């Protein structure tokens, strides 16, 4: 059974046995053991879940040694097990791993490097362990700075799993629906003047909160709309919405957990493409290439009151090992010119996807920026309705061909392609070949790393 | 300026320059840089903050090479930079660091080992990155299981820094006070029949919530009362309170972030001493010896609905490197017999502290279990009122002697002694000698590792 989960991924429940034709005995036994030990709240990718044991660059390997081209994982953003990051972690773990109530150069050096990459008004960095904690903290800071509690997010946004972050993550489809302090606006996916409509929707949402007696706190927006089906532009798309939020006294918080660290191919941050200056920027996933490290940058005027009245301490946040991992990731992004690669390989990938789309009516729009692409899967009958069943079938067929992607979007019908930033044009070609094969109802056989 | 922060630690603001007599130029410059880069929400320990660069076992070393005996850090619980843990992290970081939507033996093997150490009814493990996330998730699960939102905690409890966890962490003294769904009860520190009084207080708190229309969700209690000033017993202290919570339909959640992993010297978990079986057990800090890993164990009946309706995914939670780190910590606890050491060295430490207390009227009660001790600092005038100023002075004098501890408690007057579990009797002797010196108004000079 393939279901839907946070950010619309194609997943299945823990206890399901998977496709009986394809199930490997060891995998079925692991699934049963996993259901017994971890319980019912966990989910797995793919009708035939993967048992992975090793990663290297853009490749993942299962227990039988089969290779999978990773077209999906943005956490291992500079490549699985990058030796520079691994050795930075190992060296610092062997030297010191304490916390921020002692002085250490680690958080200071990393904060300086990150702030250098951000617009000037963002003056302070704070460190957490997860993107959820970063967005949760941004919400606490925004409430302290504004005195309000109202949050506006996009319709299928995903911002985290703490209680506070889950409450403004409509992608989770929590029972009970959205709480009284949250409003959603449609992602600016299509139609005329998407930027103008988006700004008007944000203004209307805050007005609606105001009528309900809820003061404005923040407009929180993922700059690449990862779980809304991937929205690339036009550049400037976010400017009006950010201004609409500020006009009522809310902060504009850029959630860069998905779009940050070079993913979109135009500088380090996804919001750069839109010519906006956020009040707070949250970051996470790729920040430590798998080491749990996240954080936020904030304008000093917004943190003054919070710093005086509330304060913040996170036991593992800003620890020297986390800082070493994140510093090593920044090194690799620069040395290997991964932002330029995201732009070039991403453009190549989208061009190849559009070639395939031209010959396949089940593929609709191809969107994306850098190495983050979304491809609509639609019915081929001329009505072009979203077809999540076929999207899941394509994802599972590509997995059988040894290429890993997932789905996204309000209807779960958007192919979500988001490989490590070390993806090269030949990898994109291989991914697209597996897609074509899947569209023809076949698989390609497992790949071998090249 | 020495202030008070979460869990009553003696701290100072980021921008403070520290004791001008003792300030090293480099430290003052780092403090200024830190204030500029990290902003006003961060705090530092000690009037003269420490710039640490290296750790080894029970020793920490500053930038000048001076050694400090660590009598405080429970995260590096099996000793700073333990080689078995460091090599487990390095090896797994070089092999694979993905997430729980793929199958991997790491979370399964660790879950099996942890569940083996817990009472039978706790059937499932879930993994997060921080104790805050674990307590936040416990609250979400408790709400799903009970349908209520009411939380009862102790008066100076600290349970985390997400918005939800901070709301039930009165130690943070947040502006605006406690929200409507939270009630506090005094920690059972003294008086006749503390267990009976504690149970009655918990029952009364839930009754008060009920009168306010708030249904019961959970009674959340740190089994060693770390930020309430350290409460050791009598054994059985928690049983009546847990029963009172269950009688109204609330879950009893044991917060083992402080007391877990052998800290109290009687088995792996702090609640064991009290003969209770929790509905949920949360764990964190020492779990990965500094690697960000945390989690919870839950009775299957409480997670069924949450698993069906809500689900949970944490990007870094349960990743193979976290699991390797936590598994290595369990190895070391067993191989080096650290629970027995916590019991034996802890008993020696408390005996020596009581020897000192007998000769010093400024020291009041000595409490503790295993390697977690609390010593009241009181006025010597016969009234024995809490004396937080003298407690902070003692902590700072001991730091000047090269021994690290902190403070705790409602009044901030409790010396909080919580060293790595590899602390030996000779280290306890050295700590107590520094305390005696501090009580005589002097310092001992920096130590050398023995």
UniProtKB/TrEMBL annotation, chains A, B:
Name used for this protein in its record: Aspartate aminotransferase family protein
Alphabetized GO MF terms: pyridoxal phosphate binding; transaminase activity
InterPro entries: Aminotrans_3, Aminotrans_3_PPA_site, PyrdxlP-dep_Trfase, PyrdxlP-dep_Trfase_major, PyrdxlP-dep_Trfase_small
Key words of the record: Aminotransferase, Pyridoxal phosphate, Transferase
Pfam families recorded: Aminotran_3 (PF00202)
Cofactor(s), by name: pyridoxal 5'-phosphate
PROSITE patterns membership: AA_TRANSFER_CLASS_3
Family according to the record: Belongs to the class-III pyridoxal-phosphate-dependent aminotransferase family.
């Amino acid at each position: 059974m393939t279901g839907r989960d946070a950010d619309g991924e194609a997943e299945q429940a823990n206890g399901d046995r998977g496709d009986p034709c394809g199930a490997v005995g060891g995998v079925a036994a692991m699934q049963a053991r996993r259901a017994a030990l971890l319980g019912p709240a966990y989910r797995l990718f793919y009708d035939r879940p993967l048992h992975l044991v090793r990663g290297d660059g853009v490749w993942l390997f299962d227990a039988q040694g089969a290779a999978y081209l990773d077209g999906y994982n943005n956490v291992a953003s500079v490549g699985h097990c990058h030796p520079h990051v691994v050795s930075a972690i190992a060296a610092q773990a062997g030297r010191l791993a304490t916390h921020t109530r002692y002085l250490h150069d680690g958080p200071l050096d990393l904060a300086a490097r990150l702030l250098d990459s951000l617009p000037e008004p963002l003056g302070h960095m704070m460190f957490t362990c997860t993107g959820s904690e970063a967005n949760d903290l941004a919400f606490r800071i925004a409430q302290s700075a504004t005195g309000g509690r109202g949050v506006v997010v996009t319709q299928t946004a995903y911002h985290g799993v703490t209680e506070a972050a889950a409450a403004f993550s409509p992608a989770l489809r929590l029972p009970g629906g959205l709480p009284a302090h949250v409003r959603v606006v449609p992602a600016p996916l299509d139609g005329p003047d998407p930027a103008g409509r988006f700004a008007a929707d944000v203004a209307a949402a805050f007005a609606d909160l105001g009528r309900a007696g809820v003061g404005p706190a923040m407009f929180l927006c993922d700059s690449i709309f990862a779980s809304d089906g991937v929205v690339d532009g036009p550049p400037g798309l976010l400017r009006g919405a950010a201004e609409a939020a500020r006009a009522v006294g809310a902060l504009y918080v850029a959630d860069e957990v998905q779009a940050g660290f070079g993913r979109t191919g135009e500088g380090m941050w996804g919001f750069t493409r839109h010519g906006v200056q956020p009040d707070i920027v949250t970051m996470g996933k790729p920040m430590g290439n798998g080491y749990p490290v996240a954080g936020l940058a904030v304008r000093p005027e917004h943190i003054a009151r919070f710093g005086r009245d509330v304060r913040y301490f996170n036991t593992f946040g800003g620890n020297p090992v986390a800082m070493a991992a994140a510093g090593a990731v920044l090194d690799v992004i620069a040395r290997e010119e991964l932002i330029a690669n995201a732009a070039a390989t991403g453009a190549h990938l989208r061009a190849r996807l559009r070639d395939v789309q031209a010959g396949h009516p089940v593929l609709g729009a191809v969107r994306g920026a850098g190495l983050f692409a979304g491809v609509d899967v639609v019915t081929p009958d001329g009505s072009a309705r979203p077809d999540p069943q076929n999207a899941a079938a394509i994802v599972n067929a590509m997995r059988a061909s040894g290429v890993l992607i997932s789905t996204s979007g309000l209807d779960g019908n958007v192919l979500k392609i988001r490989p490590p930033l070390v993806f090269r044009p030949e990898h994109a070609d291989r991914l697209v070949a597996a897609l074509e094969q899947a569209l023809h109802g076949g698989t390609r056989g497992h790949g071998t790393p090249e």
